Amino acid sequence: MQPMHDRPRIYLDNAATSWPKPPAVYEAVDRYQRELGAAAGRAAYREAAEVERLVADARRGVARLIGVEDSSRVVFTLNGTDSLNSAIHGVVRPGDHVITTVVEHNSVLRPLRYLEETCDVKVTRVPCDAAGVVDPRDIEAAITPQTSLIAMLHASNVTGALQPAAEVGRIARERDVLLLLDAAQSIGHLPLSVDELNVDLLAAPGHKGLLGPLGTGLLYVRPGVENRLTPLRQGGTGTNSEDDVQPLRLPQKYESGNLNVPGIAGLGAGVTHLLGKGLDEIRQRDEQLTQRLLDGLAAIEGLTLHGPAQAAARVGVVSISIAGYDPQEVSATLDAAYRIQTRSGLHCAPRMHRALGTFEAGGTVRFSLGHFTTEQEIDTTIAALQEIAAAEI
Questions:
Q1: 131/80 same-domain check
Q2: Is-cis flag, bond preceding 231, omega within 30?
Q3: Which terminus of the chain is more solvent-facing, meaning fewer CB atoms within 10 Å of its CB: N or C?
Q4: Does the pTM of the predicted model rise above 0.85?
Q5: How far apart are CA 79 and CA 113, in angstroms?
Q6: Which residues contact 46 (CB under 8 A, 6 or more apart)?
Q7: What CATH number should be reported for the domain holding residue 97?
Q8: Looking at residues 71-92, what average pLDDT do you find?
């Protein structure tokens, strides 16, 4: 076995946060910190004006990535969880009914549980099939006259399964119900159009598929939805300073306080990198690598794959179980013996694991591919799992 100190780091935890970032991301953050250093929207001197342009360019880049012409509809947030909370708490009122699914992350499950317990909100959690996919007919059947919101993810952070978001969006639009889409695992990995998906609110972190730094996020707000979306914070925006009421103009209505400009600088550079590569090309490569991993894992005796068997039906997130092994044990062995870095456990999605039957076993081992994952890394990972499953280490 090759000594650990000679083994390269194989990072397969991109569903948690992407690494490495493109060099331009590091350079953008460093340049802001060393050369600009001004707050956004707070002054008119040269560096402050350049910061304004930097933030505007990042906003336009994100808008272009999701098929939006009016970039003011893209609100920068603290992270993906902040985006989801801003949407859920900003739209749902006491007495409302909300539909979600068992495949959701705790960033959706916990705010909805809180509203159930404190605001007389009713929540329906629709089931999924054995591959972790929700049936749009179940969502449609759950709609009541009190339903104000459907909150669902686009791709599972456990199985990688892509959900039928466009069909759910069509149903929601026909029934005058808002659709909040959690794009944490899909944005930056595949072409995404909010119009084609009939999305009213799209929430995402900036540090995963978009390749930005931690502490960045975004919320897209469809035209008209701002009339129903109450801002969670009020405060300084650098605009309308003569008034002690929150401005109504977007994005300032939802961006009180100083923006994380170093993070947004890096996020803008990450988005520029993605646009330069092209989302179609990125998706094709992700599918090829994911299918290579799926095919290799499917041949390992004693190993169970969770989620769709075909890469076209998922993003590059793959969860497994190995008979006789605790998930934490597998992850620890992969790191200690092979320098392969994964995540094990429930992945903040307890209802998904109950649906898969993996909850009592402590969850799964998750491999999540990134923009810089290579075929060699995939093959090395498959070989390592073959050894672990055969108890040859």
A1: yes
A2: no
A3: N
A4: yes
A5: 20
A6: none
A7: 3.40.640.10
A8: 98
Are the C-beta atoms of 303 and 320 separated by less than 8 Å? yes
The two structure tokens encoding residue 138: 């179940």
* Residue 282 domain boundaries: 4-21+278-389
Question: Does the annotation mark 348 as catalytic?
Answer: yes
**Element holding 98 (H helix, E strand):** strand 97-101
Q: 317 and 284 in one domain?
A: yes
Of 262, 277, 292, the residue that ends a domain is 277
Task: Express each pLDDT in 97-145 by its tens digit.
Answer: 999 999 999 999 999 999 999 999 999 999 999 999 999 999 999 999 9
Contacts of 239 (CB under 8 A, 6+ apart): 41, 247, 249, 252
Q: Distance between CA 347 and CA 340 in Å, rounded?
A: 18
Number of domains in the chain: 2
* Catalytic member of 56, 337, 348, 382: 348
Chain position carrying tokens 């970039």: 71
Residue 73 near residue 177, CB atoms below 8 Å: no
Dihedral, CA of residue 217, residue 221, residue 225 and residue 229, to nearest 10: 20
pLDDT in tens, 267-284: 999 999 999 999 999 999
Co-location of 76 and 106 in the same domain:
yes
